[in-house]
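quick one, 249 residues, struct below
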Amino acid sequence: MTRIAIVNYLNTKPFLYGIRQHGLDHNSEFEFHYHFPAKCAQAIIQGDAEIGLIPVAVLPELDSYEIVGNTCIGADGKVDSVLIVSNQPLDEIHTVWLDYQSRTSVALCKILLRDFWKRQVVFRDAGEQYLNQIGTNEAAVVIGDRAFDAAIQFKFSYDLAEAWKLFTGLPFVFALWVSRVPVSPEISKTLNDAFLTGILHREEAAEEIEMLYPQHYSVRNYLTQSISYIFDEDKKKGLETFLSLLSKS
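---
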């Protein structure tokens, strides 16, 4: 049995749709485990899963790995679900709280503050209720579905994928399907075919769940416009640039 760690956020709903359409959720060859991104990384590092949709910031920590298929969680510009939020402009911020669910977005935030916004701030690790505790001259990194409400809860929000695009001219990759053990071509193709099916049917995936999300936000636009799912050559360049900058942190 192949154990698979997958992020349980809105942006993975097309993957889940494809998994169901291909019947993999009832296939005894696969066992799916649902986590937030940092937990997916932990599952791969600790050997609790063979394949995972993991934050790309974890890749330098792996002795060896292989990328499974050609899909990812990425963005070519504004992504809407990876933000710095605050009640003061960024140039007045002294402290940034770091989302405990994130690895890649936290690293991206640090790189952008250092190299793009040229700001020196204090970073603090956040707990579960941190968005209710943001003080004056403080900001927070927030990722995933919680970002939709945070964007209207706070006076200022800064989209990290949009800032990355302005900084580098490249798209950004937040997470990739990765295995630390050899994966057979058959398993890789089975999974990738399911993921591609979900990507091709993003609108249907959106229809299934849009009533569960805030009315002020378009699930359809998010899945079809904000998230870019194919790990193409431009995203490979974006990933290489990110990992190079990460190595200087």
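The longest helix spans residues 185-200.
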